[in-house]
Amino acid sequence: MSDDFILETRGLTKEFKGFVAVQNMSLKVQRGSIHALIGPNGAGKTTCFNLLTHFLEPTRGQILYNGREITGSNPANIARLGLVRSFQISAVFPHLSVLENVRIALQRKRGASFDFWRALRVLDGLNQQARELINAVGLAEYENTAAVELPYGRKRALEIATTLALDPEMMLLDEPTAGMAHQDVERISALIKKAAHNRTVLMVEHNLSVVEHLSDRITVLQRGEILAEGDYKSVSANPEVIQAYLGSGHG
Amino acid sequence: MPRSQKIALGVMFAFFLAAPLAVYPVFLMKAMCFALFACAFNLLIGFGGLLSFGHAMFLGTAGYATAHAAKVWGFAPEFAILFGTAAAALLGLVTGLLAIRRQGIYFAMITLALAQMIYFYYLQAPFTYGEDGIQAVPRGMLFGVIDLANIWAMYGTVMAVFFAGFLLIYRVIHSPFGQVLKAIRENEQRAISLGYDVTRYKLLAYLLSATLAGLAGATKALVFQLASLTDVHWSMSGEVVLMTLLGGLGTVFGPVVGAFIIITMENYLAQLGAWVTVVQGAIFVICVLTFRRGVVGELGNWLKKPL
């Protein structure tokens, strides 16, 4: 049974000085699903991401990925196992071109790139694959543009292309549509749907229509704890969730 | 190599080939040694995003090691230079392992502290002859046949070392390794999340930078037949920062131009005495306020070409 869950946390807790950001969280993410993590500001969503990828050290608890404990692994190792994250602030390499951005991820497959004596030409073999990924996210015409010059929505698309270049088994997306114009939101959610075709996605998202449209399962967090879990319909009908979102006195 | 850089390389080569007809060759050799030093420094800060404030320790250590090997042990010049460079590389490995896990100002402070420890060691150690330095270092016979006492043989050797070092740095910047290094400079968190062990990449960059700075120091010791405390003093670490910023941080040719400007000022404004420092300070302030990309950086930006 446990094989059905690609990621599992047991009693995951993160305490900062006098403040518990994530408390006793036991989360299970089904293989091949799109799982959304929602909740009001400060509910611990981003902290949870940071714990899963070991950008933060958990105070207590365990993280299992593919049945294997990864609680103590370093972030680069976790990425190499196939659990790759994105960031809330769009994470691109600003002064590298769009092609180079994607190629940096593809380059990882060569193993470690400590070969400082080789010409850049040895990476030309990756260009074709990089272009395919760039086309897939609709950035074909920007191939040689520096990432810093892309509009915000396009940066997120580039970030997703870079993440997909690693062909991760599981993607963690931190607010993929935050701060985006309407048509960009649609393009990115279509992209996520396509990307999730043969992998698992765990995402933090505020845009509830995106959550409704994309996710198979939703976990609602509040003050570091799991408040509710289920599909969109059951979660959105849950009175506790409504209260958490709208405050007491409503619903 | 883009066309703009090929042209710049050609110009630089022609300049150092023709310049000794008009300019004092020892001055040019000094300029080339410092240009290599600044290029090595730029590899670390301009492409790895790491500000070292202790790079003089590599320049000076290689100088002492080369001078001692040539004078006391009677090493041939090629082996003396190799020995000096290797000493700097070893020092780079040890200090790198200690410093590389820290970032920003902490990294700069640790490198400064380590460099100060090295400085005070050399001040006390008997083999350096303290304030006098190791003087009258024999230049020797290169490969057993070329007498480096001949100024043109020495000049040719320095030119060969400088261009070899410069082209190696160019290659490092434009290698698969250089690509990852730039990614780390641009966004370290993202590089980690893509699965790169950034510490090891930074350590290799630091090691390469230290080694090449050492090559510059080793060559310089033979040119001047002297290894002295000036090259390990913290003000030398500051000077290389100034050269790199003035010429253009993160450009290929900037450090060469920056080193040339600073060395020229020191040589030709020498009669001003302590005022040279004031003039340098003023130029630095003007640079930071008005042309932040440095001379070559601004030029490249204006031409819209990489330089």
Main β-sheet, spatial strand arrangement of chain B: 1-2
Which architecture name of chain A does CATH use? Answer: 3-Layer(aba) Sandwich
The strand order across the widest sheet of chain A is 7-8-9-4-10-11
Determine the structural class of chain B based on helices, strands and strand pairing: mainly alpha
Distance between the termini of chain A: 37 Å
> What does the average pLDDT of chain B come to?
93
Task: Tell me what the structure shows.
The complex is a heterodimer of chains A (251) and B (307). With 251 residues, chain A is an alpha/beta fold. Chain A has a single domain, classed as P-loop containing nucleotide triphosphate hydrolases (Rossmann fold, 3-Layer(aba) Sandwich), CATH 3.40.50.300. Helices cover 33% and strands 24% of the residues of chain A. A 6-stranded mixed sheet of chain A has the order 7-8-9-4-10-11, with helices on both faces. In chain A, strands 1, 2, 3, 5 and 6 form a 5-stranded antiparallel sheet that branches. In chain A, strand 5 (60-65) and strand 6 (68-69) form a beta hairpin. Chain A starts with a strand and ends in a 5-residue tail after the last helix. By secondary structure, chain B is an all-alpha fold. Chain B has a domain at 22-232. Helix content of chain B is 72%, strand content 1%. Chain B has 13 helices and 2 strands, in the order H-H-H-H-H-E-E-H-H-H-H-H-H-H-H. Chain B has helices spanning 3-18, 25-48, 56-71, 77-99, 104-124, 151-173, 176-186, 188-193, 198-224, 234-247, 254-268, 275-290, 294-303; strands spanning 141-142, 146-147. Chain B has a two-stranded antiparallel ribbon with strand order 1-2. In chain B, strand 1 and strand 2 (146-147) form a beta hairpin. The model of chain B has no long low-confidence stretch (mean pLDDT 93). The chains are: A alpha/beta (251), B mainly alpha (307). At the A-B interface, helix 2 and helix 3 of A face helix 7, helix 8 and helix 9 of B.
